[in-house]
Amino acid sequence: MLMKKDMNKQNKPDFGKVAVLFGGNSAEREISLESGRAVHAGLLEAGIAAHLFDTRERELTELLDDDFDRAFIALHGRGGEDGVIQGALESLHIPYTGSGILGSALAMDKVRSKQIWKSMGIATPEFIEIREQDDLAAIPDLLGFPVMIKPVHEGSSCGASRVTEAGQLEAAWRMAGRFDDRVMAERWITGGEYTSSILVDELLPLIRLETPREFYDYEAKYVEETTSYICPCGLDASREQELGNLMKAAFDAVAASGWGRVDFMLDEEARPWVIEVNTIPGMTSHSLVPMAAGQAGYNFSQLVVRILETSLVWDREKQGDRI
């Protein structure tokens, strides 16, 4: 097995000219800009011919005009993480990193993800989709308080809020509705917050998250310096392996592939509850996959090269022909 510290000294595949797709138009644009720049720098450090490509500023057909060989997708949120850009790249016959169309679309849809997990017996908090204002009245009896209100198709906790009483429901629903026309309510789980990062066939070390804020929201993720990232997470090795395997099963269940992150909770009785799958997690200075990869022995440049290698993987059943 290749030692991670020697990876940059080994012969790497000829990736050709690589477009780092970043920016875009989603609510997570600023995070994507930061992720893309970091990825670009990491690829250049590894000697790869990488170029930044802001999908808000340029047409995708320019990938063909400029003779790009493949794409590293560093777009977060809708338009980049939901299968849309993946479908466009497939139509252009340009290989790309990470999950295909189906896995991207399913993972981005929190309702569909949870329906799949429930059908497989994978524990995920109870939820309801709020289709109209009258649905709010059912939440106290069905889910109780506190409850999480959040958009169905957003990441980085955009539009999400913790609600502790009925009088707060409408405002939270309307705020989430500014980000998405579909909104859901999810039963609040009290306990420890964890994340499991997946890199091809490798389970990276779990990270436990602690924040003085109500939950690990946008501010805790990207702004505040008070969030603690505990890795090693403090669980014994066998328990960590068990939970990692469960999160990989949740990842596979929504047809995700290549790399990504699964967020979950351990309640007060140490029972795991899967929250969501991220198929293009952040790659910023605050981001979790680089932290977990660092604990596993990868530096940032090695990590982004390993992710880029997922663009070489050919999964005909899930993604069809791309070249």
Task: Describe, in plain words, how this protein is organized in 3D.
With 323 residues, the chain is of the alpha+beta class. Helices cover 32% and strands 21% of the residues. The chain has helices at residues 29-45, 62-65, 84-91, 101-108, 110-120, 139-142, 169-177, 218-222, 237-253, 288-295, 300-308, 316-319; strands at residues 17-22, 49-54, 70-73, 127-130, 147-151, 161-163, 183-187, 191-199, 202-203, 207-210, 228-230, 259-267, 272-278. Strand 12 and strand 13 form a beta hairpin. Helix 1 (29-45) crosses helix 11 (300-308). The protein is globular. The two termini are 30 Å apart.
Contiguous helical run count: 12
Strand content: 15-25%
Largest sheet: 6 strands, antiparallel
SSE string, helices as H and strands as E: EHEHEHHHEHEEHEEEEHEHEEHHH
Helix content: 25-40%
**DSSP E strands, number:** 13
Summarize model confidence as the mean pLDDT.
Answer: 89
| Structural class determined from secondary elements | alpha+beta
Which regions are unreliable across 5 or more consecutive residues at pLDDT < 50?
A: 1-10, 315-323
Question: Could you give a quick summary of the protein structure above?
Answer:
The chain has 323 residues and is an alpha+beta fold. 32% of the residues lie in helices and 21% in strands. The chain contains 12 helices and 13 strands.
Give the SSE map.
Layout: E1 17-22, H1 29-45, E2 49-54, H2 62-65, E3 70-73, H3 84-91, H4 101-108, H5 110-120, E4 127-130, H6 139-142, E5 147-151, E6 161-163, H7 169-177, E7 183-187, E8 191-199, E9 202-203, E10 207-210, H8 218-222, E11 228-230, H9 237-253, E12 259-267, E13 272-278, H10 288-295, H11 300-308, H12 316-319
Parallel strand pairs: 1-2, 1-3
Antiparallel strand pairs: 4-7, 5-6, 5-7, 8-9, 8-10, 8-12, 10-11, 12-13
